[in-house]
Amino acid sequence: MAIEGEVIIRAAALVGAGICMGFGAIGPGVGEGFAAGKACEGISKRPEHAGLITRTMLIGQAVSESTGIYSLVIALIMIFMT
Amino acid sequence: MELPLFELTAYVGAGLCMGFGAIGAGVGEGYAASRAAAVISRQPRAASAVVKAMLIGQAIAETSGVFALVGAILILFGASQGADALVGAACVLGAGLAMGVGAIGPGVGAGIAAGFACFGIGRNPVRGPLVLQTMIIGQAVSQTSGIFALVAGLLILFGAPEGADFVRRAACLLGAGFAAGAGAIGPGIGAGVAAGFASEGVSKRPARSSLILQTMMIGQAVSQTTSVYALVISLLLIYVA
Predict the structure, then answer these.
(1) What is the ipTM of this complex?
(2) By the number of CB atoms within 10 A of the CB, which of A31, B24, B147, B187 ranks highest?
(3) Any domain includes A61
């Protein structure tokens, strides 16, 4: 079966999009979950500061999410723009 | 020599599916047992409550491994080649990766949650049912990313659209399988860690359990977002690309 150059480039981009988003979902998932867990522990120790703790957790999780967004963007570029 | 590409890849795909799928449940359930044993050594009178919670938590951690087993059996006995051997091979390989790798995170996460919950119940057996409830809710969120991966795997195996562009479709299915599978690792583990700390927090401060549960769910929801991204990319690859 003869596979032309352009076809295999497009195929590689599609597999690469999957690999990109697949690996990219690992880090933020673990990190944000750990942040949520420690926030719950902090609230169990000092419930009167729950609002402050939750806000801090969300800010930290948003920063942790950034690389996941980068992976999503690159995966979308590889699907639609190559 | 004409290689039977589909049959070869089906065996590889089923092997990857069950091979990867056994990791998460094994690690998670072992961790749960270790924390349960540790707390029983400190509080022997809480043993029956702790063991009960451990078994329930381990059963939930086992579910993702069972999904991987079902996936491997479907690949071995339920998959057919379709129009083209290359596309059929990509189907079974992609589905095997999705369902196998996708079982790692939820298994480990549910096991971590069970371990922390058992520790909390050992220290506060009177509030055991409340801690158990928190653990189960948290574990359920951890399993959702595994469900996403299972659904993607089933769609790759049975629901992919027909078409003539064989190389492109094969690449799409392989990429979709990888995205859905690996996309369940992080959120599964993260949601499980969150559930674990929340369960232990409820055991220390049962009066504020609803506040802790609420914070856990907000945090877990943020943690699950990347598994949703991965599912979206996977569905785009199957149906749009």
Answers:
(1) 0.91
(2) B187
(3) yes
